[in-house]
Amino acid sequence: MNFNSLISSKTNRKIVAYFLPLLTVGCQVTETLHLNPDGSGSIEVVELRDENSYMQLVKEAYSKEEIFKDTTYIVSDYFQKYSETFNRTAPEDQAVYKQYSNVKVHSKQSSYDKEFRTTIAQNFQKASEIADLYKTEDYADNIKNNYALSAEEHYYKVRYDYDGHHFSRIVKITDSTHLKKQVDKIHQYKTYYKGYKLVQNFQLKYYFPRKIKSVSNPLASISADRKSLSLQLLLTDCLQNPEITNLEVVLE
Questions:
Q1: What is the dihedral of CA 235, 52, 133, 12, to 10 degrees?
Q2: How many CB atoms lie within 10 A of CB 209?
Q3: pLDDT tens digits for range 21-75
Q4: Could you tell me what percent of the chain has a pLDDT over 90?
Q5: Measured between alpha carbons, how far is 88 from 90 in angstroms, rounded to an integer?
Q6: Is the dihedral of CA 107, 19, 236, 138 positive or negative?
Q7: N or C end of the chain: which has fewer CB within 10 A?
């Protein structure tokens, strides 16, 4: 998850750099998926900075924010815009980036409206085509600045599958060393927000074309018509153990 866009300026980034793990508990992340009868659908991830939480963390710096940015792009646009460097990128790296071709990003950062929100969305023909949207902004940055894909420090990947009856959200750890660093870091910094009332929500909201027969996570809440579910977890828990967001849904 990329939270840099939720930090308002270079000045504030310097102020809160030491507290970056705390920002992850001052955010709300919602992943919403709509699945159609033919297996196509749409998915959207919204990362929203919780203003009350952020204000508690940065204190007097909060009133000194002066920023307004409102940007929208489709990842494939970057292939053309930065074609000189993109065309020199290793073919295997290009193949990864092209999985994000139709992913759309909208980022609004407004210290005047006090709204810092990033929306990442994708339409798909089948669930297996869904990109790991949490890497989108990092990959767009790589294309823009000609950074090497190998420099990324992601420690888990997310993929999806649907065969007409079973829907799966599958999370796998890809770098156990980096995961341990993240776990240790979050443990260390948790002492800093013991007295704070911070928002740290991660929520899945899934809508299906048929009734849900069963769901693997007992914490998931199924709607009255049994065609949708929601699952809310602590964001820090998800970052320390991404595999708790695995989900298996069986439809009637």
A1: -110
A2: 14
A3: 444 556 889 999 999 999 999 999 999 887 777 777 777 777 777 888 999 999 9
A4: 60
A5: 6
A6: positive
A7: C
